Amino acid sequence: MNASVAIQVLPMYPDKQKVVAIVDKVLDYIKSTGVTYDVSAFETSLEGDYDQLMDIVKEVPKVAVKAGADAQMVYVKINYFPESKGLTIADKVTKYRE
């Protein structure tokens, strides 16, 4: 693991059920990639190989469109560790979930 990414997809619809359905499809896609991920109330964190994560980031808006999102905002945060392994999702949050 040499990177972690946080991604937030915001379909722009007043219908909350449509928003949830689109986000669910994005989460299904992320799950299908096999990377380690963690869903929270505002964003989903992923960790793994930098190039694989960037491929996932590029695909997420397309998955949202296929699920019916013709208007969306996607926010991404990237933590890249070129020379060493960084903190994992578990390193960052386990003490708060016990």
From TrEMBL:
InterPro entries hit by this protein: MTH1187/YkoF-like, Thiamine_BP, UPF0045_domain
GO cellular component: cytosol
Gene3D superfamilies: 3.30.70.930
Pfam families for this protein: Thiamine_BP
Top-level division of the source organism's lineage: Bacteria
Transmembrane segments: none
Domain Thiamine-binding protein, chain residue ranges per copy: 5-96
Family annotation (PANTHER family): UPF0045 PROTEIN ECM15
Similarity annotation: Belongs to the UPF0045 family.
Designated name of the protein: Thiamine-binding protein domain-containing protein
Native source species: Schleiferilactobacillus harbinensis DSM 16991
Lineage, top ranks: Bacteria, Bacillati, Bacillota, Bacilli, Lactobacillales
